TrEMBL record:
Keywords: DNA-binding, Nucleus, Stress response. The lineage of its organism: Eukaryota, Viridiplantae, Streptophyta, Embryophyta, Tracheophyta. Gene3D superfamilies: Winged helix-like DNA-binding domain superfamily/Winged helix DNA-binding domain. Belongs to the HSF family. PANTHER family: HEAT SHOCK TRANSCRIPTION FACTOR, HSF-TYPE DNA-BINDING DOMAIN-CONTAINING PROTEIN. This is HSF-type DNA-binding domain-containing protein. One of its GO terms (cellular component) is nucleus.
Amino acid sequence: MVIKFPEGLQPFFEGLYNAVDDPSSGSIISWSWNNKSFIIWDYREFESQILSRCGLIRCNDFLGFLYELRRWGFKRARGSPHRFEFEHRDYFKKGRPDLLKRIQNKAVATSRLKFLGKDGREKELADELHHLRI
């Protein structure tokens, strides 16, 4: 199945989503049971097989990949028995590649909120809620 990604998407997200969604790499990386996070089952195989082929451009090794995850707001899934299970608030879900466009670099998102001030943040949150209801 060909996945339709939003135009202008960061290559990191497209590569990551493709890797997680690929059933042939399920023993290395896959969606979790709730389809809202992903699990890296074998980080050595992930580093040698997945990072090199899936377009995760800025990642040469597993530590670089972990840095990129943090940079884009991914966190370890709380309460997970899996060492390498990661999630992103609301924007990394199975079957919803359209949400990937909403992920922002943490530094950019923080400076944007500071720039907007209180009134701007309230409007942005209201817009966000409206968009989620649609």
